[in-house]
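Quick note —
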Amino acid sequence: MDRTDPPPPEADIVVVGGGILGLATARELVGREAGISICLLESESRLAAHQTTHSSGVVHAGIYYEPGSLRARLCVDGAARMRDYCRARGIPLSRSGKLIVATDRSELDRLDQLEQRGRANGVSGLARIAGEGIKEIEPAASGIAALHSPETSVVDFGEVALGFASDFESGGGTIHLASRVSAVRTGPGGPGGGSTGPGHPGNHALVIETDRGAVKARRAVFCGGLQSDRLARMCGGSAGPRIVPFRGGYLRIKPGRESLVRGNVYPVPDPGLPFLGAHLTRTTDGTVLIGPTAMIAGARDAYRLGRIRRHDLADTVAWPGTWRLLGRHWRAAGHELRNSLSPASLVREAARLVPGLTTADVLPGPSGVRAQAVGRDGRLVEDFLLEETGPSIHVRNAPSPAATSSMAIASLIADRVQAGA
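Predicted structure written out below.
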């Protein structure tokens, strides 16, 4: 079947969302049980059009996350699965490593806490490096101490996503592009009016309306990314959290100066601030990126700085959590705005880690939009968040390291689908 074909009238399971997480989930589901029909709906005309292909491609090791959280557990598991998958598929994955560098004594306690978290999470090979050892790993970096994660890697997540898509179709699944979900209805009976069969959730059934026709299904999984809150509310999901889009802009180091960074150089994050801060990443093609910034965006596809969509902006402005978040972090918001508008400001921040870096070394880089769930109280939802609405499962929050963790998250979702069958 061609990916441009309209969706089928019936399916046992529908997966909504053709990013890396939706594709990983569809792949996992089609491999679990023979004889079930599964289709994947993607609103765009191509797969992996948004967050999957608008990041630096880091396969995280699991250092930052609260021990016992889904992010901690699924990141470590997912990174191992990702490495194995790329090896089996022949997808280039570079174990370039990461240095988290303390540049000031005030950061040492936080570096200690990160080390404790990483060890509690089972991060392989994690080592504390004294200041003089930093240059053995990253000659241009400077600091008084660092954590070294040799297992941190980089990969082209877009290529991984296409591998998942191929696996899913080889298993009998179908992909339908340009099939935006416009409504979801729940009614009695399954596809074709039956009451038994794989994936049957009792007397519930879904009718998923798209721009290109309706699909009746017994179960559905929504991996909608930037549209996840809207899709959940279509199905009767909770009013919150809401997605507040954050635009992340990058600079890139000019050709000929990429030797400033061998792998990944990160700052010690401030737990009181919502994001990691400027860091440097060598991607799979040798490009070195600086960033990203983190500025609330006027559209959920604001890859261009000035893009505004009225519906998106209205949703962001109307959500009380947006204003409470800004009230709590107004200094950080101002700092990120400055970094977003001034390359020199972002370079100064990155030069704390790599002192030889100057504005003459950089060019404009790519951008991405992060789908960040924000509660009504203005707090960022830190962990992965799933919600069930009858026969549907919704991924309501999947921040970094969701791409790293995609295969592990997919396994968790498939377990829940089977448990509700």
